[in-house]
């Protein structure tokens, strides 16, 4: 049976931090808008900051739907599934915001992550304040074996400098504006705060 929790306690934190992939879900306010669901991976790009706050690194390579939805209404759900061990699904419903590279908080938030995951492809840090923390059974989630990280994403962006990354973002569709026409990533990509 599922339970709700007042905070991300030690057991939940251990579970969250041990999963190699998680999912984010956001939606615009418009009833005919597109719901967005994104997988997130890359080891070291998620941090539990305290019992009610999480953050993850937002990289280039896809649209900016999550950023656009957060800028409009802040609603976000994060979900982790156990693909090994006991069948568990954990969800954090909350309010999120995209902290862009020129925000004075960017550097102090980035310090919560391993420096090796930082790079030119980093667009923002998504900060999530939990409003509801719950778990449920994962009886229908299959067992799957984790093999290794894919390095293609980091290798692709490590070949780009800051100027190339900004040009890449400016040349992609649905970065500055979401598929529903909402403001997405500010362009040109904001420089990093000093």
Write the layout of secondary structure elements.
Blueprint: E1 3-5, H1 10-18, E2 22-26, E3 36-40, E4 46-50, E5 53-59, H2 65-72, E6 75-81, E7 88-100, H3 106-110, E8 122-137, H4 152-158, H5 162-171
Antiparallel strand pairs: 1-8, 2-3, 2-6, 4-5, 5-8, 6-7, 7-8
Describe what you observe in this structure:
By secondary structure, this protein is of the alpha+beta class. Helices cover 20% and strands 31% of the residues. The chain is built from five helices and eight strands; from the N terminus they run βαββββαββαβαα. Strand 4 and strand 5 form a beta hairpin. The mean pLDDT is 94.
Structural key phrases:
194 residues, Pnp Oxidase, Chain A, 8-stranded antiparallel β-sheet, 8 strands, globular
Task: Summarize, please.
With 194 residues, the protein is α+β, with helices and mostly antiparallel strands. Helix content is 20%, strand content 31%. The chain has a single domain, classed as Electron Transport, Fmn-binding Protein, Chain A (Pnp Oxidase, Chain A, Roll), CATH 2.30.110.
